[in-house]
From TrEMBL:
Function: Involved in the catabolism of quinolinic acid (QA).
Classification lineage: Bacteria, Bacillati, Actinomycetota, Actinomycetes, Micrococcales
Name the record gives this protein: Nicotinate-nucleotide pyrophosphorylase [carboxylating]
A cellular component annotation (GO) from this entry: cytoplasm
Subunit structure: Hexamer formed by 3 homodimers.
Keyword Oxidoreductase: no
Similarity comment text for this entry: Belongs to the NadC/ModD family.
Organism: Leucobacter edaphi
Length: 284
């Protein structure tokens, strides 16, 4: 969740990185009393995300800066649209410009890519979800952007849910059917009835042993659409079925048509391109 504390902390850190001892150019060239009017402009179409960060950047550089017409999170736009109007003390606007754009371009890029994945599976029941493949320190921002694009959030951190992957089973020595079932049942007893437990499998032959342990969900990793459909048939509604691994815009529709409930896509965050936005001065 994108909290007030997170917003303030991220912006403070970004401004400190960009102007650790002040903005030398602004201080030497721009009079203290100078004002500036600007427009945040879209140079390509997309979906907007990051408004709360924009507000916080200019709050921290100069609280006298006014922001009007700010687009709501998740709003689509086309090239040439004005996404916000920013006016006030020129020093504060110029100092915060790059940090604000970096955050908005990154978050809007994620929202835009997510919206394309969501649109590609709209004819199915599948939900598009993110992963933990996020930029360290910016996970809350990037997951917020996924939601702005119409996607869903997977677990936020390792503390949120149990997800047993192949390396976990290998470490437990659970290498065959009975040992896998026993290990997972023991895990359920230790975790308690409220814990969500998802188990990853990479072969159909593993499914029966995992199903017998009654997990909350099963993640089918790197399956073909035909294998996914067979996995859905075998699981038969006994838990949530998730598909993951190498899913892209070309393959996501076929993946969704297999009948899975969730498709987790690492590309939403680690592969999104920053959107082209600009902050343009308004001249008479």
């Amino acid at each position: 969740m994108l909290t007030r504390h997170t917003i303030e902390t991220v912006v403070e850190s970004a401004l400190a990185e960009d102007a650790p001892w002040g903005d030398l150019t602004v201080e030497l060239t721009i009079p203290v009393e100078a004002t500036l009017e600007t427009v945040l402009s879209a140079r390509e179409p997309g979906v907007f995300a990051g408004g709360p960060l924009l507000l916080e950047v200019f709050r921290q550089t100069d609280q006298r800066i006014k922001i009007e017409g700010l687009l709501a999170e998740g709003t689509p736009f086309v090239a040439g649209d004005a996404l916000a109007r920013i006016a006030g003390p020129a020093r504060g606007i110029l100092t915060g410009e790059r940090v604000a754009l970096n955050l908005l371009q990154r978050m809007s890029g994620i929202a835009t890519l997510t919206s394309r994945f969501v649109a590609a599976v709209a004819h199915t029941r599948a939900r598009i979800a993110d992963t933990r493949k996020t930029t360290p320190g910016l996970r809350a921002l990037e997951k917020h952007a996924v939601r702005a694009g119409g996607g869903s959030n997977h677990r936020f951190s390792l503390s949120d849910a149990v997800m047993v992957k192949d390396n976990h089973l290998a470490a437990l020595g659970a290498v065959d059917g009975p040992s896998t079932t026993a290990a997972l049942r023991g895990l359920r007893d230790r975790a308690g009835h409220t814990a969500s437990i998802v188990v990853e499998v990479d072969r159909l032959e593993q499914l029966e042993a995992v199903i017998a342990a009654r997990p909350t969900g099963i993640l089918l990793d790197n399956f073909t659409p035909a294998e996914l459909a067979e996995g859905v048939r075998m699981i038969a509604g006994r838990c949530v079925v998730e598909a993951s691994g190498g899913v892209n815009l070309d393959s996501v529709s076929a993946t969704a048509e297999s009948g899975v409930d969730v498709i987790s896509v690492g590309q939403l965050t680690h592969g999104a391109r920053a959107l082209d936005l600009g902050l343009d001065a308004v001249t008479a």
